[in-house]
Amino acid sequence: MSEASSKPVKPRLYVASRTGAERGRVRLRTLSNLRWLAISGQLAALFLVYFAFGYSLPLGYCAIAIAISAVLNIVLALRYPASHRLANREASYYLAFDVLQLAALLYLTGGITNPFALMFVAPVVIAAATLNLGNTLVLAGIAFVSVSLIGIFHRPLPWPAGDMLVLPQLYQAGIWAALVIGIGFTSVYAWRIASESARMSAGLAATQLALAREHRLASLGALATAAAHELGTPLGTIAVVARELERALPANSAEVEDVRLLRDQAERCRAIIARLANPEEAMLGQAARLPLGALLDDIAAPHRGDDVAITVAVPHGDADNPVPQVWRAPELLHGLGNIIENAADFAKSEVRMQASWDAASLHVVIEDDGPGFAPEIFERIGEPYVTSRPGHHAPGDSDIDPALGEHEGMGLGFFIAKVLLEQTGGMVKAGNPPGGGARVSIVWPRGVIDGPEPPIQSEAN
């Protein structure tokens, strides 16, 4: 932990900007194919109404509007490759064109009284699912203005001669309201679903990155074991040859000390390799499992500093209820470490860790005396990319080293910690205790992290 005066000010990146940047590119081919589908449907409806039903409508003007859309598709196909991806603004322009083209067709064919006015929903929903929030709102505004204008100014609805259908103004107002509400509701719904999907995908990718790093470190043990197996035989040969040379040389020979040194160093290398070959027993020893209090103290040690005190309170065990021996699983160390670091960042002077256990479960509670979790993110604690305004406790605000390929100050710390701890079988809850500050509690069933075998998710480690 650094001094309070030297703590850097962490950037707060909000959910909308983050997810929008990630979802803000869509393939041109996707929009072109959707436009060709719309053109086909418009042509089919136009010729069916005009030629099959015999309704009078401005066929030439309608054909021009459809032809412009087709020409635009052809020009884009010739100018850009099929795999070309559009930025937010470019995609917004093309979708805005679709809205205006549809508005022109509906103006010529009855305005919002035309049943196909419902198609205004399509471009806005596509924008909500693929573009950022700003461009989606702009496109929804264009659709709203278009619906309002053609609701007032439009040519009559095509109908058989002498049998015109005139809808009451109140009914037309209801159609307008239904279109506006439908556009708003479906766009917001699509935006929320797409944003949630993007956040979860990015957050899980970050979690997998953190786990991959831990597993890479753990895999070094397997490499060391293989190296020990390969080097054991030649080092044994060196030791035997050195011993034979020591016996063959005269006791007062100048080379005896060198040969003895060579034999001692070979034996030392063999001892080191023996520890590498069996890291659980020889290298880690009893550190593979630690008493609960010692484990919590070991995890908290890197985050202690002069400005924040971290205390660990663990009951004394007895013969009937001994202190649990907990496995040092990477998921457990990384998850608890993230929560402790986050608490230390927001604490004023103290972080308290309390542990308890009974026959059914094992509990760990981490509290700090900081401002507590911010109200605006309280209902979304545990989601990725959730941050708050400066000065309030936000899950995942603790720093993560960017050099390791992870994100810094982006609301991922608590999310990663929660996923990792849940993988060890724990259940994580967060809240603000009545006395102030923030509290995170984790509960494991007995035998999961303190059983005879390591947690299932960490067996590979």
Q: What order do the helices and strands come in, and which of them pair?
A:
Elements: H1 15-23, E1 26-27, H2 28-52, H3 59-79, E2 85-86, H4 88-108, H5 121-130, H6 133-152, H7 169-248, H8 256-277, H9 279-283, E3 289-291, H10 292-300, E4 309-313, E5 325-327, H11 330-346, E6 350-357, E7 361-368, H12 413-423, E8 427-431, E9 438-445
Helix pairs in contact: 1-7, 2-3, 3-4, 4-5, 4-6, 5-6, 5-7, 6-7, 7-8, 7-12, 11-12
Describe the structure.
- By secondary structure, the protein is α+β, with helices and mostly antiparallel strands.
- The protein has three domains: 195 residues, no CATH class; 68 residues; 172 residues, Heat Shock Protein 90, CATH 3.30.565.10.
- The strands form three sheets. The protein has a five-stranded mixed beta sheet with strand order 4-6-7-9-8.
- A hairpin with a 3-residue loop joins strand 6 and strand 7.
- Helix 5 runs antiparallel to helix 6, helix 6 runs antiparallel to helix 7 and helix 7 packs across helix 12.
- It is elongated.
- The N terminus and C terminus are likely disordered.
Which tags fit this structure?
single chain, 461 residues, alpha+beta, Heat Shock Protein 90, 12 helices, 54% helix, disordered N terminus, disordered C terminus
Task: Give a quick rundown of the structure.
With 461 residues, this protein is an alpha+beta fold. The chain is 54% helix and 10% strand.
Number of strands: 9
Uncertain segments of ≥5 residues (pLDDT<50)?
Answer: 1-24, 280-286, 394-410, 457-461
User: How many domain modules?
Assistant: 3
Taken as a percent bin, the fraction of beta residues is 5-15%
- The backbone outline, from C-alpha atoms, is elongated
Instruction: Enumerate how many helices there are, as a single number.
Output: 12
Straight-line N-to-C gap: 28 Å
Strand order of the largest sheet: 4-6-7-9-8
